[in-house]
Amino acid sequence: MQAGKPILYSYFRSSCSWRVRIALALKGIDYETVPINLIKDGGQQFSKDFQALNPMKQVPALKIDGITIHQSLAIIEYLEETRPTPRLLPQDPKKRASVRMISDLIAGGIQPLQNLSVLKQVEEEFQLTWAQNAIISGFNALEQILQSTAGTYCVGDEVSCPQVFLYYRFKVDCTPYPTISSINKRLLVLEAFQVTHPCRQPDTPTELRA
Amino acid sequence: MQAGKPILYSYFRSSCSWRVRIALALKGIDYETVPINLIKDGGQQFSKDFQALNPMKQVPALKIDGITIHQSLAIIEYLEETRPTPRLLPQDPKKRASVRMISDLIAGGIQPLQNLSVLKQVEEEFQLTWAQNAIISGFNALEQILQSTAGTYCVGDEVSCPQVFLYYRFKVDCTPYPTISSINKRLLVLEAFQVTHPCRQPDTPTELRA
């Protein structure tokens, strides 16, 4: 099925890129990383070459099987359909619905509001509060949902379509979210999360490496 | 499979609610509508009863098969998995990826930025420009993507996971988007789009009915 290694256009700190890196790692798919620095050179995502690849001018984008897919969840669904083992979605349609609901809540309800392009439109002094508000309002909902869906991980005991919380970038206090926090802790120790961590990417600046 | 009719919690003007109404109509699924007025009574989505149903305090939510699903795309994926005929996603995984990429672009890249709760955080005089910027930036990308994926509709010639553009609410000039505009025109004449149109809902105010 594969013609050459898949290429992932990624930024070390982008949580949507991280989500795809985790999926690739969980499925054991070997790939090359092309780093797109969202800040350097005024933002490499705005280059003509990258825009041709992803007109949304965002990472991640994945070149695979002769096509280019962007939008992290669309990429993960494609990987799941074409490389089903090990699976990232449960077998039961109701549980699959829970996974997608949680993924959409994070990827559609929280993250878009903290994107660099959006934050730039908010006055600098309010940017942190803006990002925090989005996270807090999303986490209030997520905590409540997870209380009825979670086992070891978000939905039952299988690691599913991975979710990653970059809340620490925006200094959100997670004390009110015990379920989110404990699932996050259990995920972060897994190998697929360790090797794909923002502090361990080809484009991670030396001072942020760990 | 069904225990009673599905119940859709919907607001006539919510484009995410409309997306689910279209999916239900295309699949011929009979359902009841419970209108949630996002403005009246300070927003009925904030009521205790509704929050228990959807902690994100957003429409749509669908009660079906004994569960409640929110997030429009998660709902549509569930309908597709449990009621596969007629299908809303193409059979070919690459085309399915295109549909999901386009859906995520709209539902995750454009719509969250125009949500009532987000617009409220923007100073009133800038709200229209804010919403327009989000639509224009998304449409610039979408137009380019559709030029390579579209046939009669967004991906080839089958109506897929439905996308709906409420750009007219924010007075965006669509001249630069001939592909988006012509697909939209072709969709709007379909029966499933006609009967589910915001101007024809149980909760549509008389002055907006058509």
UniProtKB/TrEMBL annotation, chains A, B:
Classification via PROSITE patterns: GST_CTER, GST_NTER
Domain GST C-terminal: 92-206
InterPro entries, per the entry: Glutathione-S-Trfase_C-like, Glutathione-S-Trfase_C_sf, Glutathione_S-Trfase, Glutathione_S-Trfase_N, GST_Zeta, GST_Zeta_C, GST_Zeta_N, Thioredoxin-like_sf
Keywords: Cytoplasm, Isomerase, Phenylalanine catabolism, Transferase, Tyrosine catabolism
Reaction(s) catalysed (UniProt annotation): 4-maleylacetoacetate = 4-fumarylacetoacetate; RX + glutathione = an S-substituted glutathione + a halide anion + H(+)
Pathway named in the protein's UniProt entry: Amino-acid degradation; L-phenylalanine degradation; acetoacetate and fumarate from L-phenylalanine: step 5/6
Localization of this protein: Cytoplasm
A single GO BP: L-tyrosine catabolic process
Keyword NAD: no
Main localization of the protein described in the UniProt heading: cytoplasm
Keyword Electron transport: no
Domain GST N-terminal: 4-87
Cofactor(s) essential for the protein: glutathione
GO cellular component, one term: mitochondrion
PANTHER family xrefs: MALEYLACETOACETATE ISOMERASE
Family membership noted in the UniProt record: Belongs to the GST superfamily. Zeta family.
Protein name: Maleylacetoacetate isomerase
Gene: GSTZ1
